[in-house]
Amino acid sequence: MPSEFTGKHVTVAGLGVSGVPAAKVLQGLGAHVTVVNDGADERARAQAAELEPLGVTVRLGDGDTLPEGTELIVTAPGWKPTKPLFTAAGQAGVPVWGDVELAWRLRGLDGRKAAPWLAVTGTNGKTTTVQMLASILKAAGLRTAAVGNIGVSLLDAVTGEEEYDVLAVELSSYQLHWAPSLRAHSAAVLNLAPDHLDWHGSMEAYAADKGRIYEGNRVACVYNVADKATEDLVRAADVEEGCRAIGFTLGTPGPSQLGVVEGLLVDRAFVEDRQKNAQELAEVSDVNPPAPHNIANALAAAGLARAFGVSAAAVRDGLRAFTPDAHRIAHVADVDGVAYVDDSKATNTHATEASLAAYESIVWIAGGLAKGATFDELVTGAAKRLRGAVLIGADRALIREALARHAPEVPVVDLDRTDTGAMLQAVQEARRLARPGDTVLLAPACASMDMFTNYNQRGDAFAQAVRELGA
Q1: Which helix (H) or strand (E) holds 12?
Q2: Cα(443)–Cα(430) distance, rounded to whole angstroms?
Q3: Rounded to an integer, what distance in angstroms lies between the CA atom of residue 136 and that of residue 322?
Q4: Cys-Cys link to 310, which of 140, 165, 377, 414 (CB 3.0-4.6 A)?
Q5: 143-197: pLDDT as tens digits
């Protein structure tokens, strides 16, 4: 039992996916644990009932007051740094960690070798890239798991019975903000676009938290050649001696880059004499789906895997074995020569821009909760590809107005309803606008909670509506 936690008074801020495991682990390590939580709903009461028999103190309905005697706070990643609890902690000199920081510090405490982390962040594409990376690592015969913000608890990964050779770790900007000592083997920032600015306070602060993923990297900092902001984060990072900057590009790669040449994914970073040589890794057709942004994800995953010493054959086999999660540019069906594609996961303009770029002639289904976003730049870039647009959701007027300004020739159907049945009508209207060879694309550029529980339910409603077309 590590003396660092034995007898220590630790406050866990927030129940939920991360708070309950953190409380259990800390209690098991001999800490005196108090959990504070803003809400006191039925779920919170059930979680409290689960923890209290273990000796954990739970305070519901008061997440702002610092418990007396607190020596450390372990917070849920989504809690804003401006909360009074953290202000009080700062005044009292109490450190604040996230669950990722706790997991990092617990690596190897049971005497096992600590598995290195290959870490991924970015505004979009994190989950897909981490899953691709895990598939590649498994193809190389390594014991691994996709963990972190992807839904598998990092705490479970580092304290559970299963041993790993390496972990593929997805990290959000929230998690990185609360992880000051994290030092990955290698890491990638896929892209940067405005997101979660209400939490971070500014784009600069958001980017700085993303950039934390590069701090202390040992082997490679993987960045997006097409997104200079990611390279700037590499330049600003304090890394270990010998750590290399590795770019990925959809074009022909230069030395120390991975890219695409004549339908092949190639490596000019982890080869001998990279000035003259390149290693074929896979064919573009090995990437599922082979949309441009997904090829970029595959190159980033390949870069991290190659930094860990994985063979080119394992990169190819891992990409071939990978199946993307639902609602991520997923082909649902072809009806009367029109393809119907579900990208309900495209909940912001940056993700939707990538989705729209994957098809030549599109009937676009969009709308929902805009979260403060504007759509002029998105519409301007996609205007030539749009056959028509069908708009749903609470903030659809923002998209309609952007279409009127920048694509006035595109026919628009504005559905003045926010009930879940609107999706069936939206698909029917899209079918009316579409021609053989077109793609009807659900890429909402907005959150779903005005009409649906989450983006999964929204995508399921789209898929069901498409199935009814073909019935």
Answers
A1: strand 9-13
A2: 13
A3: 8
A4: 140
A5: 999 999 786 779 989 988 889 999 999 999 999 999 999 999 999 999 998 766 6
Q: Which amino acid is at 97?
A: W
Burial 59-91 (b: 16+ CB within 10 A, else e): ebeebeebbeebbbbbbbbebebebebbebbee
Helices (H) and strands (E) in the chain, counts: 17, 20
Question: Tokens 């003045």 identify what position?
Answer: 416
DSSP string, 106-174: HTTTTSSPPPPEEEEE-SS-HHHHHHHHHHHHHHTT----EEETTSS-HHHHHHSS---S-EEEE--HH
Q: CA-to-CA distance for 134 and 283, rounded, in angstroms?
A: 19
Counting as low any pLDDT under 50, the low residues of the chain are: 1-2
* Interatomic CA distance for residues 33 and 10, integer angstroms: 5
The torsion angles phi and psi of 64, rounded to 5 degrees, stand at -105, -15
Question: How far, CA to CA in Å, does 377 sit from each of 37, 132, 365?
Answer: 40, 30, 17
CA distances, 83 to each of 59, 64, 80, 88, 180 (Å): 16, 7, 6, 9, 19
Residue 340 corresponds to which tokens in the numbers above? 């119907």
- Residue 54 is given by DSSP the state G
